[in-house]
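BUG: 3D viewer hangs when loading the predicted structure for this chain

Environment: internal workstation, default settings.
Expected: structure renders.
Actual: progress bar stalls at 90%.

Input used:
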Amino acid sequence: MNKLLFFFLFAASAATAQTDSQKDSISADAKPSRWYEKVSIRGYVQARYNRLLETNEKLKCEQCDRSIGENGGFFLRRVRVIFFGQVHERVYFYIQPDFASSASSTGLHFGQIRDAYFDVGFNKKNTFRARIGQSKVPYGFENMQSSQNRLPLDRNDALNSAVSNERDLGVFLYWAPDKIRKRFASLVNDGLKGSGDYGVFAFGAFNGQTANKPELNNLPHIVARASYPFKVGKKQIIEPGIQAYTGKYTLASDLISKGTKVRPDFTYMDERVAGTFVLYPQPIGVTAEYNIGRGPEFNTATDSIETRNLTGGYIMVNAMLPWKKQLFFPFARAQYYNGGKKFELDARSYTVNEYEVGVEWQPMKNFEFVAMYTISRRRFEDFVKQNNVQAGRLLRLQAQLNF
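Structure tokens produced before the viewer hung:
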């Protein structure tokens, strides 16, 4: 009897201990996560050299890579460190400084904010969310595509001339079903050079003066975009899109030459519409975009900045070719642009005809190398430089670290 009683007491004690252990485990699992468990860090560094096989040192591109042409050498194009995290099931933040910014023509490698925003979801899956802060303006596929993923070393002039650095301060509303949000993510994660998740539909208001610039008028720009990645057959994905924005742009007084005629308020109509078509490379891909609109542009015939029509776009053919554990991305792009660049001196007038052929090599996920041969003819004119047409060829190289 004593042995039987001892057995029951031991079993009860063990069961109680197990229950207490389970409670402790459940209690431990229920503890809120610490802030640093919700924050991640990643980034990339791009180092370039553009002077090989160069035929004209006067050929330059102020908006893209300022190390092209005379006095250009080895150059850090981007040094990005990105802090991001889902700090609440409905709140996401993203802060991206760049440490390769130029404070002046003689000062390089200054830190400057590229992105600083947070997303607030309106439901648990964040299919409908508001983005508040400085972020990319949803206009154009290549503008949305990260420079970490893009194949050509610089964005095309035609659509990138809409928004310098692709960013501005504002509020943007994004909507996409959960299934399509996952598809947007896979198009980047699977190496297909997607643009990221900027919604199936986007609508927003922003200052209109471009990133890291103060607002100079009381009228915000308005933008809208629709883009949907369709599955075609078992494997192929195509993504057509359309986008447009409208607003008024005020020229900065320090970017107007003495003698240039301007409107009394320095303010001009600024509006565009663009179409996009993307066939993702499985293994062959095609990307094409074209936009039309009007904006401020220098007119050499009148020495004045006027609201003028603009037009231009590009087409790119590319492929994704795996070999053993490496990836090769050959590509060729042709671009054309005729219009002004509102954020350059005197809203500089441009005509661009450019052809590029190159290949990106990824021997491992943490390192990429790009070689690209460029054939270019650019007319860029302002009050100081008139009748300025430069043509040339050059071989451009870039090494990229991903972490």
